[in-house]
Design brief:
By secondary structure, this protein is of the alpha/beta class. β12 and β13 form a beta hairpin. α1 packs antiparallel against α2. It starts with a helix and ends in a 7-residue tail after the last strand. It binds zinc ion.
Length: 325
C-alpha cells in the first residue's frame, strides 16, 4: 500500500514537469484495480428451521418483450410495468435459480437450470454449486417442478452424462404423463415440440425416475403443492422444518415485476392461461395470508422473500440478508 502510493506520487510528480495531462491518467489506471466485467457466483444461504437453504443461480435467459409476451395485456401496459420496476422495456433478463435444501438427512436440489443450452448466459449451476461448496455427486435427491427446458436440461452435463449421478430423481406424475406421451407430442404446436424432445433426452435413459402426485411428501419436509396451469403438472413445494415454512412457487408467479403486480396476466409460456392465473392468485394469497417465506425460479436472485397484499394486487418483498441465517 505504502509502496504503491509512493510510486503513484513519484510518477505523477516526474511526469507533471513535462506532460501535465497524460501522466495523471496513467497513474490513476495503475493505482486502481481493473473492472472484473462479470458477476460473482450467484449463491445465497438462508436457514429454515433446522434446514439450510442455498439459492444457486444458473444465469439468465434474455427474452424479447413483444406483443405476445403477455397474452392478455397490451404491450404498452407491460412496458409501463417494466418501467415501474426500472427494467428495460424491450428485453427481460429472466433469472434462473435452483434451490438446494439440506434437510440434515438429505441434500436435495429443486430444479436444475437450463444446462447452458437455452442461451450462453445460462448453465452456471454446476459452477455455482461448486462455489457454494457442494459436490454434485453428494446430491441425494433431485426434485423437478415441471418439464420446461429451463428446469430440466441441467440434469445432464454437456457430454450427456447425468450431472447428479447419485441422486434419486423425482418428477410430477402429471408432467411425465403429458411430456412423455407421443400423442401429445404429435399434437403440440411446432414451437413446443423441442421441449418434448428435450424431456425425452433428459429422462429417457435414467434408470429410475420417481413420480409424485399432489400432496406427496417427496423427501421428509418437502411436500408437493398442485400448481397446474403453467404446464399440465406444474408443482410448487411446501418446505417445512419445525414451525418454519417456505412455499417454493416454481414458475407460478414467473417474474414479480409483471405477474405479482398483475396476477391475472398470463405469460405466453403459461400453457393453460386461465388455470395458471387462478393458481397464481391462490398461491400468492396463501403466501401472503400465512406470512410464510417464498422462493421462486425466475424472481431476481436470490429469489427468496415474502408476498404482501397491496390492494387488489400483491407486492414482492425480498428477504433481508441479515435475517436469512
Ligand atoms: Zn421456468
Amino acid at each position: 500500500m505504502k509502496l504503491s502510493r509512493r510510486r503513484f506520487i513519484a510518477r505523477g510528480a516526474a511526469a507533471a514537469s513535462c506532460l501535465p495531462l497524460a501522466p495523471l491518467t496513467a497513474s490513476v489506471v495503475e493505482a486502481s484495480a481493473p473492472a472484473a466485467g462479470k458477476q460473482v457466483p450467484a449463491v445465497f444461504r438462508s436457514r429454515l428451521g433446522a434446514f439450510e437453504l442455498t439459492a444457486i443461480g444458473d444465469g439468465y435467459w434474455p427474452r424479447t418483450v413483444d406483443a405476445d409476451f403477455v397474452r392478455n395485456a397490451d404491450l404498452m401496459e407491460v412496458q409501463t410495468a417494466l418501467r415501474m420496476a426500472f427494467l428495460p422495456i424491450d428485453v427481460l433478463h429472466i433469472p434462473i435459480t435452483a434451490l438446494v435444501v439440506n434437510t440434515g438427512g438429505k441434500l436435495v436440489l429443486i430444479d436444475t437450470g437450463a444446462g447452458g443450452r437455452m442461451a450462453p448466459t445460462t448453465g452456471m449451476l454446476t459452477e455455482n454449486l461448486e462455489a457454494a461448496g457442494f459436490d454434485p455427486r453428494a446430491v441425494d435427491a433431485v426434485v423437478i417442478s415441471h418439464f420446461h427446458p429451463d428446469h430440466i436440461l441441467g440434469l445432464r452435463n454437456r457430454d450427456g452424462a447425468p450431472a447428479f449421478p447419485n441422486a434419486e430423481v423425482s418428477v410430477p406424475a402429471r408432467e411425465w404423463a403429458f411430456w412423455m406421451d407421443d400423442g401429445e407430442m404429435s399434437r403440440a404446436p411446432d414451437g413446443q415440440r423441442w421441449a418434448f424432445q428435450a424431456a425425452r433426452k433428459v429422462f429417457g435413459s435414467l434408470r429410475d425416475v420417481r413420480r409424485f402426485e399432489d400432496k406427496a411428501e417427496i423427501v421428509a419436509g418437502i411436500t408437493a403443492v398442485a400448481a397446474f396451469g403453467h404446464s399440465p403438472g406444474h408443482m410448487a413445494f411446501r418446505i417445512a422444518s419445525g414451525t418454519d415454512q417456505l412455499l417454493s412457487l416454481s414458475d407460478a408467479a414467473y417474474h414479480p415485476a409483471l405477474f405479482v403486480r398483475h396476477p391475472n396476466w398470463q405469460i405466453a409460456s403459461d400453457m393453460d392461461g386461465p388455470m395458471a392465473a387462478a393458481t397464481r392468485a391462490r398461491l400468492l394469497d396463501m403466501a401472503a395470508g400465512e406470512r410464510i417465506r417464498i422462493a421462486a425460479s425466475h424472481f431476481p436472485f436470490p429469489a427468496i422473500g415474502h408476498i404482501a397484499r397491496a390492494r387488489e394486487r400483491y407486492r414482492y418483498v425480498p428477504l433481508d440478508r441479515e435475517r436469512a441465517m
